[in-house]
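Forum > Structural Biology > Help requests

Title: Can anyone predict the 3D structure of Indole-3-glycerol phosphate synthase?

Hi all, first post here. I have the sequence for Indole-3-glycerol phosphate synthase but no way to get a structure on my laptop. I'd be grateful if someone could post the structure tokens.
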Amino acid sequence: MNASDEEMAPAVRSILDAARERPGGEERLAVDARSLPEAFAAAEADGRVPVVAEVKPTSPTTEGTREDDPVELAREMVEGGAAALSVLTEPAHFGGSTENLSRIRAAVDVPVLRKDFLVREDQLDAVESDVVLLIARFVGDDLPRLLEAAEERGFQALVEVHGEGELERALDAGATLVGVNNRDLGKLEVDLGTFESVVGPNRERVPDDVTLVAESGITTAADARRMRDAGADGLLVGSAIMADGSVRSNTETFTRASPEGKS
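Reply #1:
Sure, ran it for you. Structure tokens for Indole-3-glycerol phosphate synthase below:
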């Protein structure tokens, strides 16, 4: 593990410590994954902004817990135009579960991302999903091996980065789905300029077949347009969609944000 625990916020260190102790699956999975890039393309063709809407009951950076049935929330998000879903399976800090993911994936026809903090290969085998999250800062030099292990099982892997160095490592490892997290895991501060500063100077280095996702801090339609203008192929939106009110209406705020001006 290359990530320096001392450089992370206490809440993130707690998440990482719990992730290291969490068991994996007992049998190796083989997944027939729904394509995230194809789902994004279908949304574009339909005039929608490609949004990965996140079913997130709670988190260390939000207040309160949403008690709605996760499956009903997921269906509302899809009805609101979400191209894909992200489902938390981390139990201790986010109130997620693998059971929720399985129920949601069975109930919808869009790709489902397993949002968790995976640090070992056997943890890939805990539940079937279409996409798994690999956080470059958490997995360090194990990234190429874990990326290969995920793809061998049929998963697509969204490799999350925060800086230019991590973007380079992700591309060198062969990642074709890259998420740029606007949240600094060291301070838990959000800055939408992160996506712009990571992607902007390196846009020519990113192959055409790499899908870029802007993550965290997208709270308004204006934020969505800003990330799209900066080159985001898709947006991952959690807290703003899970906020009070209609999840379907909250999702539409982002899927109907004008895609014009996308790089």
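The mean pLDDT is 92. The chain is about 35% helix and 15% strand.
Shout if anything looks off.
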